[in-house]
Amino acid sequence: MLHGHERSITQIKYNRDGDLLFSSAKDNHPCVWYSINGERLGTYEGHQGVVWAIDVDWETKRFMSGAGDNMLMIWDVQTGKALGKIEAKTSVRTCNFSYSGNMALYSTDSTMGNPSEIFIIDVRTVDSSFSTNDPILQIPLTNAPKATSMVWGNLDEVVISGHDNGDLAQWDLRTGKKINLVSEHAKSINDMQLSKDGGFLITASKDCTAKLFDADTLECLKTYKTERPVNSAAISPILDHVVLGGGQDAMEVTTTSSRVGKFDARFFHLVFEEEFGRVKGHFGPINSLAFHPDGKTYASGGEDGYVRLHQFDQSYFDFKFDY
């Protein structure tokens, strides 16, 4: 159990090698941990508000965080120095490095008369002039619902956004136009994660389901049903498994005991949509899940402010579905 945050976790992410785990919470400093022994390396100090989203680039050189103080900051992973920052009009809800690491995307909330917007920026040179550079592309979602989660699509040519009415949209970066829209979910999409090869996309929604999409065509392939809102979902890099984490809204937590099993991480088979395991542990809803890149451990971050690292035992790998 990693306890470095006073308030509830908003997002956790492994780097590509899997030796570091990054976590952000509703306090102002994202943390970085050694995933092997849970030792905390340090924190990134500089935000003045809730850190909603984090991402780390392919080489683990730079780390990006977006927060409720309307700031997107880019840090040096090793030293914890802030390399550059961009001030947005409203709070930054999502941020992602592209696969190439040359570009990044971030999206903002719709508040105070400002629409939710998606920005694509160039992050090849991050220095003091970074905040004044114009974005490569700016997509205002004027009449559309706000973007709640984003991922880069195939070959950095498209981005995929999930919205708070359950829509999933695909945007072409060259034209800045919407090329695809599917409305499979009934309520807000809380989290989206790609599979290891980028071919599949799993969405976690407030309508108590997680769905598996083809990342190119946005065709809905599978649906994993639960009885309560799903806050996060992840696809195993080595097996045909997905893990779902959720629970009810934070305000209803005090009325339920952790024994009821509402705060478990639930494992489903990717193909058969069948639940085959649960992991207890958190004292509140799970807000973020991530598989280690080697598929042998996974991490979950909860409303209780703890990040838990779970190691799978041998029986998990031996377990085969009969079909």
From TrEMBL:
Keywords: Cytoplasm, Initiation factor, Protein biosynthesis, Repeat, WD repeat
Keyword DNA-binding: no
Gene3D superfamilies: YVTN repeat-like/Quinoprotein amine dehydrogenase
Signal peptide: none
Residue ranges of WD repeats: 2-43, 44-85, 182-223, 279-309
GO biological processes: formation of cytoplasmic translation initiation complex
Subcellular location: Cytoplasm
GO CC, one annotated term: eukaryotic 48S preinitiation complex
GO molecular function: RNA binding; translation initiation factor activity
Quaternary assembly: Component of the eukaryotic translation initiation factor 3 (eIF-3) complex.
Sequence similarity: Belongs to the eIF-3 subunit I family.
Task of the protein: Component of the eukaryotic translation initiation factor 3 (eIF-3) complex, which is involved in protein synthesis of a specialized repertoire of mRNAs and, together with other initiation factors, stimulates binding of mRNA and methionyl-tRNAi to the 40S ribosome. The eIF-3 complex specifically targets and initiates translation of a subset of mRNAs involved in cell proliferation.
Name assigned to this protein: Eukaryotic translation initiation factor 3 subunit I
Record organism: Daphnia sinensis
